[in-house]
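Recall from the previous chapter that SMILES is a line notation for molecules. Here it describes zinc ion.
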Amino acid sequence: MTLTDADLERYSRQLVLPEWSGAAQARLKSASAVVVGTGALGSPVLTYLAGAGVGRLGVVDDGEVELSNLPRQPLHFTPDVEVNKAVSATSKLQLMNPTIMIETFPARIEEFNAEAILAGADVVVDCSDTFATRYVVNDACCALGTPLVEGGVLGFDGLVMPIKPGESACYRCAFPTEPPEGSVPSCREAGVLGPVAGIVGSMQALEALKLLTGAVEPALDRIVQIDARNLEQTVVKTSRRPDCTACARVPAATQSG
Ligand SMILES: [Zn+2]
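With both inputs in hand, we obtain:
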């Protein structure tokens, strides 16, 4: 897709990067990303993907904006309380970058609708808040052969994992079984601080841009753990499991990106 003069001006600071190029920007313009969840992780992810010029964005969230969301979910404002979060996020993103197309899904991703909502995306970014959704998104992306960026945050701890099904370890390769319900506290129970989610979401957006443009290699086969107490990162190497129920049968040849 060709870049207009307005594109060249809007994206000039990333176009000037030696790692970037007009071709990378044009790939972004013709690319599609779906972001699952518009909360503490989804807000920075969507902001940076819309800002960077991803041509088509899918925004998925079935929840309504709550007063307790506002300290860490900067796409939602006080007058948005009780508005559907996908709708609230879309209105801000469209103002931020009117040149991109946004598709709004006021829905929860579940097994029955996951592949329908995620099909056609060049990358999926999972910013959901439950393990059940995380495994559904991972398995659907593996079935579709769609690159995925997983992320999670709880308290002062975060995790980021970019995935190319058929090529690198998927979330289920790294964590084969879902933790039993109630065994891991939720953000509601354990708490979370806005900037910690901002760090994790920014890293997810970065990895998604790498996967979409090919400008820089994504950190595949790595689980990046962030400890925001001391700003330390631990990179845990991981690899595909030949018996993974999600990705073992995905042929690498189907991969895009
Ligand atoms: Zn796997």
